[in-house]
Amino acid sequence: VTPGPEDRPGEFETIARLLRPLADRPEARGLLDDAAVVPSRPGYDLVLSKDAIVEGVHFLPDDPLDTVARKLLRVNLSDLAAKGAEPYGYLLAVAWSERCGWPEREAFAAGLAEDQARFGLTLLGGDTVSTPGPLTASVTILGWAPQGRAVSRAGARVGDVLYVTGPIGDGGLGLLAAKGELVGVSADAVTRLADRYRLPAPRTDIAAAVLAVASAAADVSDGLLADAGRIADASGVSIALELERVPLSAEGADWLASRDEREGRLWLTSAGDDYQIVFTAPPEAPVAFAVPIGAVRDGRGLTVLWRGTPTEPPRRGWTHR
Amino acid sequence: VTPGPEDRPGEFETIARLLRPLADRPEARGLLDDAAVVPSRPGYDLVLSKDAIVEGVHFLPDDPLDTVARKLLRVNLSDLAAKGAEPYGYLLAVAWSERCGWPEREAFAAGLAEDQARFGLTLLGGDTVSTPGPLTASVTILGWAPQGRAVSRAGARVGDVLYVTGPIGDGGLGLLAAKGELVGVSADAVTRLADRYRLPAPRTDIAAAVLAVASAAADVSDGLLADAGRIADASGVSIALELERVPLSAEGADWLASRDEREGRLWLTSAGDDYQIVFTAPPEAPVAFAVPIGAVRDGRGLTVLWRGTPTEPPRRGWTHR
Questions:
Q1: What is the DSSP string of B146-195?
Q2: Which residues in chain B (135-154) have CB-CB distances under 8 A to chain A?
Q3: CB contact under 8 A, A32 and B234
Q4: Sign of CA dihedral A150, A156, A160, A165
Q5: Rounded mean pLDDT of A154-160?
Q6: What is the pTM assigned to this prediction?
């Protein structure tokens, strides 16, 4: 149903009713100014990341808009966590599709409000427009890292250990579950996996621990193998990843039990949307919060090992076009 | 023509071939990192603004993509100029539509490269995705302003003079010209106006002068009356704007010559996309670079005066939904 003209919220009404309450810091200037003004923070660098989502590409058309908004914040928070940065604020651009009347916009804003409070963010500015196409939104997130210490992808050194901060593969299984295409696990597991896909948990809780030990890090958004491979490429090293050591959730292990283990693990580690952190750290670093899954070696690129023998993955991760 | 699959550039190829060359500062980390790391600049605040554009809403489907990219940077640069901020860098999110193969993406990147160089910007990061809908893009622009001195919309004081930095109305006439709907001016004037609509000139050249004198400022993106009205609202004052003092271009004056002057001027000052700066300054401030067009008074809201008498505009500016 296309809402009538009287139901079409305008830009200024949308800002005044829904977004201004989210802009609760003086830096946002009450969203009255077309710009935010962020004072320098001595001893800290500003870490900025920007991710965009499109309905039908990055989320499903029937996903509730409060979770869509929360996921948009969370994928950006995941980028901050991988740099070891502390969340600060964000700018938001939304192109509302024709179906977005007041109830849809209110749901979207309620999702933002909930996760702002949860993760310590504030809305700093942005833009709201309309589109004849699918709902499209982008967030530019800002965080603080101690001066010169933000973790990069490029710092892995030969001899480092490769770690991952939690279960891998639930993002891929969750997408299947959300589309009603996941078989071989219980109905409860389908629900839990779909929920994790719709609302991932970015690892902001261990960003400080990553900052303390990591030589290189990335969040697992495109698939563990793809993201580990990019650390290898950016660092100019080789990474050997031991497939059987990659941690799985209970649901992932259930799904795997009825399949060829090597093929199933290759699928799980090539799917995206996990939002764990994959990182390298020197062997002497104390790392109690993550699971060792490989090693950094001389050479170039990622080698996937299955019980000690190199194996070739059919695909390495999602490519968003 | 929908390009075949082999012509569909992937995200990583687009970044590697077209965007990485634009990220020429270490803060961008070669776009390898999902995040930019910007050191604090002692004595300066970071000014951030974010604008989005949608094909068919903010630009015409047959507009060349190099000028679309340049206009996207320029509307954001205009926001910086109104704050008195010096351009520094930007993050970019693009959702490529199906028609965007390599030639279209190359044109877009070439436009970015040209205006980056012209305005002293560098690409810091962002995201590139695809969309089944219209081409959609947003820029988050960053600039520097001396600590505590970025000009806001909220600082106008009773007794201040209202100024505008150049001709008003060419954006609205230019949109008509670009759509082939402008009559009553020469063919040359149609071309010049359409060019100004497609490629506005943000007033970064006088940002420092605005910073030196302005008590409040905004760029003229939604229409002079709307943007002046928002200064009045944000500042809690009344602004009286003298319609006959608003400067026009030669083309605008030509167009006006064949119409009722009051109605024509109301139309020109209610159209958008001019990207001049409207600002207030104390009467004693030396302002040689802008034209006085009104005064700040006690009270609330904007009053439009035509030869000394209040007149009611039929519309105050564009509302992007």
A1: ETT----SS---TTPEEEE-S--SHHHHHHHHHTT---SS-HHHHHHHHH
A2: 136, 138, 140, 142, 145, 147-148, 150, 152-154
A3: yes
A4: positive
A5: 97
A6: 0.93
Distance from CA of A12 to the nearest CA of B (A): 8
- Whole-Å CA distances, A7 to A2, A98, A104, A107, A127: 9, 11, 11, 15, 20
**Residue A8 Cα, gap to closest chain B Cα (Å):** 8
**Out of A43, A129, A320, whose CB is closest to B129?**
A320
Pairing of strands A36-39, B291-297: unpaired
As a whole number of angstroms, the distance between CA A307 and CA B204 comes to 61
Contacts of B154 in chain A (CB under 8 A): 29, 32-33
Residue A317 has a pLDDT of 61
- Could you read off the pLDDT of A190-241 as tens digits, one per residue? 999 999 999 999 999 999 999 999 999 999 999 999 999 999 999 999 999 9
The C-alpha atoms of residue B259 and residue B129 are separated, in whole angstroms, by: 47
Nearest to A263 by CA among A302, A221, A311, A319: A311
CA B252 to CA A251: how far, in whole Å? 68
d(C-alpha A38, C-alpha B144), whole Å: 10
Place of tokens 């007149």: B311
- Which chain B residue's Cα is nearest to A41? B40
By CB atoms closer than 10 A (0-12, 13-18, 19+), residue B314 is exposed
CA dihedral sign, ordered B216, B218, B223, B224: positive
For B51, the closest of A127, A145, A218 (CB atoms) is: A127
Residues in chain B within 8 Å Cβ distance of A93: 50-52, 93, 138
Residues 256-295 of chain B with CB under 8 A from chain A are: none
Joined together, the tokens standing for residue A70 give 């929360």
SS3 A252: helix
Q: What pLDDT is stored for residue A314 in this prediction?
A: 78
Instruction: Produce one character per residue of A243-259: b if its CB has 16 or more CB atoms within 10 Å, e if not.
Output: beebbbbebbeebbeee
- Three-class secondary structure of residue A33 per DSSP: coil
In chain B, what residues touch A220 (CB-CB under 8 Å)?
none
Is B92's CB within 8 Å of A153's CB? no
ipTM of the complex, rounded to two decimals: 0.92
What pLDDT is recorded for position B317?
Answer: 61
Inter-chain CB proximity B57 and A93 less than 8 Å: no
Nearest by Cα to A320 from B284, B54, B12, B207: B12
Chain B, 50 to 69: residues with Cβ < 8 Å from chain A are 50-54, 56-58
| CA nearest neighbour of B95 among B140, B137, B55, B35 | B137
- A-B CB pairs within 8 A amount to 243
Among the partner-chain residues A37, A138, A152, the one whose CB lies closest to the CB of B47 is A37
Q: Is the pLDDT of residue B186 over 50?
A: yes
Nearest to A50 among B9, B91, B319 (CB): B91
Three-state secondary-structure class, residue B47: strand
Residue B321 has pLDDT above 60, yes or no: no
Query: Going by C-beta distance under 8 Å and a sequence separation of 6 or more, which residues neighbour residue A5?
Result: none
Rounded Cα gap, residues B139 and A191, in angstroms: 37
